[in-house]
Amino acid sequence: MTELPDLKTAEPIPEAARAEVAAILNSGDLFRYTSENSPVSLLEAEFAEALGSRYALAVSSCSAALFLSLKALGLPRDAKVLIPAFTFAAVPSSVVHADCVPVLCECGADYRIDLEDFRAKLLACDAVIISHMRGHTSDMDAIMAACDAAGVPVVEDAAHSLGTTWKGRNIGTIGRVGCFSFQSYKMLNAGEGGIMITDDADLIARAIIMSGAYEHNWRKHPVLHDAFAKWQNELPLYNLRLNTLSATLIRPQLEVLGARVVQGRRNHDHVAAILQKNPVIDVPAPLDGEERAPDSIQFNLVGVTDAQADRIVDHAAQAGLVLQIFGRTDDNARAFWNWKFLGEAPALPKTRDMLERACDVRLPARLTLAECEAVADAILASVTAATTEQAA
Predict the structure, then answer these.
(1) 205 backbone dihedrals φ, ψ, rounded to 5°
(2) 305 half-sphere exposure, CB direction, 13 A CA radius
(3) Distance between CA atoms of residues 385 and 192, nearest Å
(4) 120 Cβ contact partners less than 8 Å away, ≥ 6 residues apart
(5) Is 361 in a helix, a strand, or coil?
(6) Would you say 56 and 48 are in contact if contact means Cβ atoms under 8 Å apart?
(7) Would you give the DSSP letter of residue 282?
(8) Residues contacting 344, CB < 8 A, separation 6+
(9) Distance, CA of 84 to CA of 132 (rounded, Å)
(10) What region, left, alpha or beta, does residue 303 occupy, with left being phi > 0 and alpha being psi -120 to 50 degrees?
């Protein structure tokens, strides 16, 4: 059996970035506004073109992009923002940071938004953030139809979904704004960083100024200057800029993104087919029209007790595999009841039940099929050992 691969290592930085990084370090020019054609500006242009959007703004994180999106929408203080209950803690945190109030929506066993609960809560909300959590895309046709009818703007949290498409459209281009992550465990690795895309000139102008384009630095962005002129000195500066070094690390990775997407999907589907043969494991299928770009795999444990579920995690750890169950610890940042900063957690029984049995394992695009099979074997061995112990 192939030895378990290292799943912690991020996607590699292409050789093409290294000479440019060295040149930047020698010059000391790390600030994005020193020149008009800085690596950050080039990244924005290239990323927007790759996704098919008019404008892009690179910032310090996807959380910063989400925060700026809400501020650029001009939402009033205490505006209600509908978000899925299955997401990362940074999403409700960005809502709170924007002086808004998160409203949590149920998610089902397939990790996607429960449309009945979504529609019931939508009319009381001022904006929506759709988290394509772990790359699982909800029914964007139904969501956009409901939001358009209600006049509610949609922000896509596509941190995990760069390269995913919905009926041929790039995720992140369907709502008013799309936000992506360059954190190390994403398809494009800069350690930290994020970017937002939109076709709305006025919205991006507001976001650019608030990101830290003080004085006339906004002139270095390819947006109609009329959109900027009315906002200069009218908006606060949050200083969430991306630096040139991070942009230099990201740009050559755009060239290999397509290959990473193909390989990531291949790896996921190969492991899913192996795991799905075990009656204790259920890997939710993609929705019709969804083409995912996964770099991890999620699956549900079926018919196991809490004790068995916890032992599966322990057996995996003993084998050297990090397998987490989102709802089985008191510190997992994806379990909504651990978001103590929001106050008392709502009931949300569907989401809670799902999180109590939803497993997560990293599956980087760089893995070979043999390495993927080693991961699958370790998962199956852990499940078998834990469930056999209980039977005995």
Answers:
(1) -65, -45
(2) 9
(3) 38
(4) none
(5) strand
(6) yes
(7) E
(8) none
(9) 9
(10) left
Grouping H, G, I as helix, E, B as strand and the rest as coil, residue 366 is: coil
Alpha-carbon span 283 to 285, nearest angstrom: 6
Q: Model confidence over 289-298: pLDDT tens digits?
A: 999 999 999 9
Instruction: Give the CA distances from residue 283 to residues 156, 273, 277, 346, in Å, rounded to whole numbers and listed in that order.
Output: 24, 9, 10, 27
State yes or no: pLDDT of 391 exceeds 70. Answer: no
Whole-angstrom distance, CA of residue 164 vs CA of residue 261: 8
Fill in the amino acid letter for 355. Answer: L
Q: Token match 């193909």: residue?
A: 262
What is the pLDDT, as a whole number, of residue 37?
84
pTM score over 0.90 = yes
Q: Which domains does the chain have, with CATH numbers?
A: 16-254 (3.40.640.10), 257-391 (3.90.1150.10)
Task: Return the residue matching tokens 């809560």.
Answer: 121
Q: How confident is the model at residue 224 (pLDDT cuts 50, 70, 90)?
A: low
For residue 374, pLDDT beyond 80: yes
**Cα-flanking dihedrals φ and ψ of residue 368, to 5°?**
-85, 165
Q: Could you tell me which of 12, 384, 389 has the C-alpha nearest to residue 376?
A: 384
Alpha carbon separation from 387 to 109, 279, 327, 375 (Å, rounded): 21, 11, 19, 19
CA 120, 337, 85, 75 torsion-angle sign: positive
